């Protein structure tokens, strides 16, 4: 299985589990996917009609659901990138175990992608890095607006997904991980994404 196929599989798994929870999203999701695939104006018109027919309450739920789906897609991509980086490091013999390989950032890979995929020259990359400016910014509150509880749920989803594709997983383990993913996805959707009240000094200390 190629790296791109693995990302597609990760993404499809998480989206399928989430769509099982919210059946009403299928129509909007399918219309969006069809328009994205062929860019047919008719599909865009159909999508617009469905969206404008929603009442304000349903619109909020739909918006939250699609935001959640994007979060799941990002988590799938993170796991795929970590897997690819881990395999590369192990093949090079840079690490003695998988856990250490998965935590390393690979700047060399980033440079190669800038050159091969985006057509940037080494000189352009060097000039861009050389001209970077760094400013110190002091804020009264943390810039991280996402709730810590939601970040923890995302972390558990990421961990389950990574374990799900290990080579020595048993059928019982797979079933348990599938059920864990289902629970965490449901819990994440029920969690408000942002904090509605400014954090207290105690909250900032805990963060």
From TrEMBL:
<dbReference type="InterPro" id="IPR018129">
    <property type="entry name" value="PEP_COase_Lys_AS"/>
</dbReference>
<dbReference type="GO" id="GO:0015977">
    <property type="term" value="P:carbon fixation"/>
</dbReference>
<dbReference type="Pfam" id="PF00311">
    <property type="entry name" value="PEPcase"/>
</dbReference>
<dbReference type="InterPro" id="IPR015813">
    <property type="entry name" value="Pyrv/PenolPyrv_kinase-like_dom"/>
</dbReference>
<protein>
    <submittedName>
        <fullName>(rape) hypothetical protein</fullName>
    </submittedName>
</protein>
<dbReference type="GO" id="GO:0008964">
    <property type="term" value="F:phosphoenolpyruvate carboxylase activity"/>
</dbReference>
<dbReference type="GO" id="GO:0006099">
    <property type="term" value="P:tricarboxylic acid cycle"/>
</dbReference>
<feature type="active site">
    <location>
        <position position="141"/>
    </location>
</feature>
<comment type="subunit">
    <text>Homotetramer.</text>
</comment>
<dbReference type="InterPro" id="IPR021135">
    <property type="entry name" value="PEP_COase"/>
</dbReference>
